[in-house]
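Sequence in, structure out. Go.
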Amino acid sequence: MTLTAASLAPPASPALLHRVGDRALSWLDAHRDHFRLTPEDRTSGRATVERLKPVGELAINMHVLFREGVAGSRQRTRAGALLDFAWRELLDGGNVLAALQHDEPHSPVPMELYAPFHELGHRHPGLEAALDVARRTTSWTALEMMPNRRLGLLNTERRLGLPPTADFDQAVARTWLGQLPEPWTVQLHSAYDITHTVFHLTNWGAAPDRMPPDIADYLTRYLPAWLDDWADLGHWDLLGELLVVDACLPRPTLDARLWERYAAAQDASGAMPIQRAMPEGDPEVVFDLLHHPTLVAAFASAMATSRALSADAG
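Output:
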């Protein structure tokens, strides 16, 4: 990794930032049926969890779009329809999550998937009762997981208004980012650890003021170099997540040069490739490769557009 000075490029225009998200949302809407669980998915608990992850990501990103208030009427209608589709059809009004909680009572996954829908007013009393029982056990707090995952679990409890099962600040201190390591040691896995630590710290960008000053200073110093490096590698999925991190900083750069490269990588359909060019092949396989980076593009767009408009208003 080559550490470079922070870019002096001007910030990207709100129109460019918004266009990336609008195109991504169009692709997600057009491919909504690929989010469905198949009968084969339901035969294995592990397969069900893997197939449900995109549904949870869809819900989080649509929630962000609503929260930031930067969507036009067409986008809001489309995002609302996707959220309703996810809750009613993909999750059967929460019954899919309740069944998974019954099968794996100490898995945090049903609770994590439930959180964005709960925040939007959806309720499933049976699931909430099962979660209450599970969280009373020692097994719940004894679950072994990576520090970043523990932080995500604590943030989910906070989103649901539940008492925390561990100390949040101590959980932050145990993460890779919380220890402020040498910046040149960042590799692909630790880069994703960084982005998700920021997401959990700030509740998916809703509360950037929760980021500790030392972490904000560290990211302000080194994030521009990481952004340049992953852009040069054409790793659009990770670059999108790092652009969200930029939008969560006290003084986001919204670097026009980077956003123009990111927008140029987006397919005309609105899909965003993981890395380099668009994949080809079976539509189901291609969807599995594209849904995450495209959801990230919608997330990054909503956050950056919101920050750009706030800066203009200021």
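Check: The mean pLDDT is 92. DSSP finds 14 helices and no strands in the chain.
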